[in-house]
Specification:
Blueprint lengths: L2 E5 L2 E4 L4 E8 L7 E7 L6 E6 L6 E3 L7 E6 L4 E6 L8 E8 L14 E4 L3 E6 L1
Parallel strand pairs: 2-11
Antiparallel strand pairs: 1-3, 3-8, 4-5, 4-9, 5-6, 7-8, 9-10, 9-11
Length: 127
């Protein structure tokens, strides 16, 4: 069965960095668009970054532009989220997800194409 397993979350001070990883199994990884979502307490789950099948196309929500970088290694079936200059408002549970995409590059900006989800990893940024 399909499994997405996130790792790399934790507690960090404001201004610090974390690198999230998401290891995928049970699917043809390079055929899927991938995304990182986050959900803070009392808020909707939001897409923060997405990457197309080959890694050549990316999307970032405005609040994290210039601070976070999404990347993927199709040989390792893994997607990453490098998070720098972290702020307390970045505190959330972060989820990776895989999208069945019909777009040319596999870059999906809506939630509904994301069929497979990880269990989430907590990121807490202290002020």
């Amino acid at each position: 069965q399909v499994q997405l397993v996130e790792s790399g979350g934790g507690l960090v001070q404001a201004g610090g960095s974390l690198r999230l990883s998401c290891a995928a199994s049970g699917l043809a990884f390079s055929s899927y668009g991938m995304g990182w979502f986050r959900q803070a307490p009392g808020k909707e789950r939001e897409l923060v970054a997405a990457i197309g099948r080959s890694g050549g196309n990316t999307y970032y929500v405005d609040s994290i532009k210039g601070r976070f970088t999404i990347s993927r290694d199709n040989a390792k079936n893994t997607v990453y989220l490098q998070m720098n200059s972290l702020k307390p408002e970045d505190t959330a549970v972060y989820y990776c997800a895989a999208a069945v995409s019909s777009t040319r590059w596999g870059l999906e900006l809506e939630k509904h194409p994301y069929h497979y989800w990880g269990q989430g990893t907590q990121v807490t940024v202290s002020s």
